Amino acid sequence: DIQMTQSPSSLSASVGDRVTITCRASQSISNYLNWYQQKPGKAPKLLIYAASSLQSGVPSRFSGSGSGTDFTLTISSLQPEDFATYYCQQSYSTPRTFGQGTRLEIK
Amino acid sequence: QLQLQESGPGLVKPSETLSLTCTVSGGSISSSSYYWGWIRQPPGKGPEWIGSIYYSGSTYYNPSLKSRVTISVDTSKNQFSLKLSSVTAADTAVYYCAREALLWVGELLGDYFDYWGLGTLVTVSS
Asked: Which residues in B1-126 belong to E strands, given as ranges?
């Protein structure tokens, strides 16, 4: 199985901050990497697919980059509704695997 | 607007079989561009992919669960279903169904879960 490791596990930030979350794959996955946002009691929501493609309807302050084993999710200017848990997920091989999550909290 | 809705018992006894159905509305399950998947999330943990099915019935499963999992599809009802046998407390989780979109750019370049159900909590307990 491909292991997905996110850092940090938790992060405190303020409204308006620029935030970067990192995801590392245990082997190269090209750009087969997706990012999701999850709020308590809700299903995950797709933000970014194929490492850098913004899902329809997702604000442009979200962006993704990377290829191979190292990927980043960046939120350019945090908004109150962005405080949530973020997960990366690879679709390069079976089984599909998720990172352990990064919890983004209000400072 | 596509919607997915999970249904099934919220409580299952150990050693028994967990059975859930996902009903798709607002779109056809028979589209060639999508698989349909099951994902679970134990309390306080990250998501775990269980398996996915194509409208033709083609499936692929997480090897860690493959011996206990069966996913089937009923295109006439626009539904797909999950059966997980011999459950234990470790199978307690919120179970989600989701649409798995295939990314084609000349060739298949991955997939992603773009629509999710609300999720249903299944507790394994006697």
From this structure: 3-7, 11-12, 18-25, 34-41, 48-53, 59-61, 69-74, 79-84, 93-105, 107-116, 120-124
Q: What is the pLDDT of residue B106?
A: 81
For tokens 């099915």, name the residue.
Answer: B53
Report mean pLDDT in 10-residue bins for chain A, 107 residues.
Answer: 98 97 97 97 97 97 98 97 97 97 95
Chain B nearest C-alpha distance from A49 (Å): 7
How many residues are given for chain B? 126
Residue A10 pLDDT: 97
* Paired sense of beta strands A10-13 and A102-106, if any: parallel
**Whether A45 and B110 lie within 8 Å, measured CB to CB:** no
Q: What is the reported pLDDT for B74?
A: 98
Contact with chain B for residue A89, Cβ under 8 A: yes
Among A43, A55, A94, the residue with its CB nearest the CB of B119 is: A43
φ, ψ of residue A82 to 5 degrees: the values are: -85, -10
Write down the pLDDT at residue B108. 80
Intervals of chain B under pLDDT 50: none
Does A35 contact B at CB distance below 8 Å? no
CA angle centred on B51, ends B104 and B23, rounded to 5°:
85
